[in-house]
Amino acid sequence: MDHLIQILRDISEIDEKALLFEVLNQNKIKELIIKLNTQDQLFKRGIDSNGESLGEYTENTQKIKASKGQPFDRVTLKDTGEFYESWEVIISDISDIIINADDEKDDTALFEKYGEDVLGLTDESLELLVQAIEPDLVGLLQEKIFSFLR
97: helix, coil or strand? Predict the structure, then answer.
């Protein structure tokens, strides 16, 4: 009976925040966050983290984009890919997921022109992130619980 009580104590002391921190810090999850932000929100939809449109390119830029075979009906902030490649995700704790990128392009600071909300996930992207981390989080929790049973 004492062994069972100890197992229950151990389970109750599992630090769920530490488990979530461990899952969020996986490279595949950081890469997913970047993909959701750059490819899904910016490139495919031309929106910021609030779901707001980044606007339209000027007529001249539309012509240039069309000649390169790039989307021109929405602002994607992708020309050479350098901006997207500068993205990084830092998990300082579970309530503080930081997304950084180098916004300097030629003589333009992209965040000044389009706002800092370019960085960040929409509610829809956050839901996709939650769905993606759930299996890893459950698996890690199961590992912890089963380790107490040995």
Answer: strand
Pair 54, 118: CB distance under 8 Å:
yes
pLDDT in tens, 108-145: 899 999 999 999 999 999 999 999 999 999 999 999 88
**Bridge-partner residues for 100, per DSSP?**
88
The angle, 0 to 180 degrees and rounded to 10, between the axes of the packed helices 123-149 and 16-24 is 120
Q: For helices 123-149 and 2-12, what crossing angle results, to 10°?
A: 160
Q: Which residues are registered as beta bridge partners of 99?
A: 89
In this prediction the pTM is: 0.88
Q: Which amino acid is at 9?
A: R
Question: Domain ranges in the chain?
Answer: 2-149
